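REQUEST
  id: r-88c1
  op: predict_structure
  target: diguanylate cyclase
  payload:
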Amino acid sequence: MAPYRTILSFLLLFILSFAAQASSILTIGQEAIRLTDFRVEYFTDDSQSLSYEEVRKQTFQETTSSTSLGAKAAVTWFRFTLRNSSLKARALLLHLPSAYHARSVDIFQERSQNLIDQASVDLNDASDHLLMYQGTVVYPFTVPLGETVVVYVRSHVYSHQWFSLEIYDNARSRQALVGGHLDIALLVGILLAMVLYNALLYFATSKSENIFYSLYLISGLAWIALSYGLLGKAFNIYGDAVFVLNLALITMPIFLLLFMMSIFETEEFYPTEHRVLQGMLALLAITLVYGLFDAVGALKPAASLAVLLMVVTFSVGISLLRKGHPLVKYFLVGHTFFVVFNGIAVLYYKGLVAPNYINGHGVGIGIVLEALTLAFIISYRIKVLENIRSKQNEFKQQAATDPLTQLYNRRQIVSEGEYIGEKARAAGEPLSVIALDIDHFKAVNDEHGHHVGDSALVDIAGILRQYSRDTDLVARVGGEEFVILLPGADHAEARSCAELIRRGVERHVVDAGDGLDVRITVSIGVAEVDTAMESVESAVNRADKALYEAKALGRNRVCCSEAVAGGASF
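RESPONSE
  id: r-88c1
  status: 200
  body:
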């Protein structure tokens, strides 16, 4: 009889196993319990008023323990059956890690078709609830040896029904609760860093796109922190008070559109695209205003609005690309990430694709990737503006500089002369002028050629730089004429400087090529500016007269001018 009993036992176990699979019964044994992906049943209560007893009689459909059912399943009942085939009773914990986004959660436990326990969590009053731990409802229950329990979970959400059920033993439960949300904290940290970075950029540039970009980032990180439970985990707040923050799903694209209008300057250069963006902006603004009075109603079409937003922004981006905007190609790269990942998320929230990590985190990933690209666009634009500014400064420098000697020209010394004079007058400091002319320069050009004359001018410029100070303003104001303004130098210091220059030129030899050396000299006039009585132009005129006096006295010498009233120009 023993062999027959063994065969019958095997058959019985096979039949029980088959029956368990057919009815989606979870069987647990002695092993560690970590159930995060298993089959459950669900029923959508369209009336939102059925009791536990009434729901037990309804027909349930099969789904997975992590599911998304869209916006038409606000009240959904989930059910699973657990059989204990181990040698002892098993104490387990049911985790509802997405409970933070619900209005309320109710749990019913039955054994042998009798209700043995129930629990309710109202998220508006969940901060101190015994079953609430950092956004996760943790419900303890026991499955006795050889028995079966059926657990019903009623999930009442604000808009979209996306939910998860997990079952752990005590050790695995602690691990799951400690290790969650690190990835979301990282995403929020990245966005916070970019908000700070962009705030610094705004103070440096005062550009409106920096404001819109910052508000876009703040909206994005607010929605990520709320939608993925970081607010509940960090601050233990839930319910209606924080649900309104979901309107960030509307403010975020509003600021994205304003950013596009600003950085691409659509109002000024692309009127057709600007009107399209304005139309989308108006639709979002109307939805936002409506959401201030009925957040749930405003968020129900959020997925459809997201699809429309993607179409509009991508179409405008392509249009601007075809019209040759230099920045839009980078925007399209980042926006492609946003469109792809948010498209996946839209399908997930509508319950059209199976839940997984990418689907459930699509919006957060898309926001961060696009935000990084927008930060690059802002930085790139700053670089472009800096290049333009550098070119402008280069042009200004060229306009103020003698191309041969690279000294300042007459225009620059005229524009800077009076400023330097006013500064010296206000500070009560001395100011002097040196006027210098190369002796017999025409003869150098006629005898040796203009290339030697040009070499002489360049060499003289080098000597002037050598013997002048960093604060002095040195300029070539004519063919062979030079002027030096010496802030802080009195008459004696200016004469000393002029003498050093004269001797330096006298000792210098100009290389005329073919082994020929040319020596030149200069005549110099010096005048101290009477800042209380005369202009710099007048002092330059006096220095120029002293220069001609030096020429009349035989050249290669320094002559000084006494201060007189009056004024003249270069």
